[in-house]
Design goal:
The protein is mainly beta and 154 residues long. Helices cover 14% and strands 44% of the residues. It is built from two helices and eight strands.
Length: 154
Amino acid sequence: MFSRKSKTLGGLVFLGLLIELGIFPPLLTSTSVFAHEVEVSGDVAATFHLEPNHNPRAGEQSRVWFALTRKGGQIIPLDQCNCQLAVYSHPHKEEDKPLMQPRLEAISAEQYKGIPGANIVFPKAGIYDLEISGNAKAGANFKPFELNYTVTVR
């Protein structure tokens, strides 16, 4: 299987192609793009952000959001996706149960409208894995995806 490093590199290459072809314009208009993480799974890319400033604190509410984009640059709103979010302790095994599964809601963040987001309270300082997965609802057209992000909580 591919390492996390090669998946991230592949995602950056894919993102670069989208930018070069001019089909990922939301990224070009963002002033805080360097504070976000981008991952790719199949034909879905996601810009991930964790407020405040990717610096969550244990016991305090943090907001996480995912700007999902299908190949071609079109945003995938939550109402087109059967999306789930799971939070795990890091490291975790595939068979481990998540610590929590925050309910995703459609939010607006920066220039994105209707994207999946959730409020999370991390129980203690440490490293966590966030996994968002989903598939297309009827009428939407993208492949099932699974994206993983590692978060350090202070």
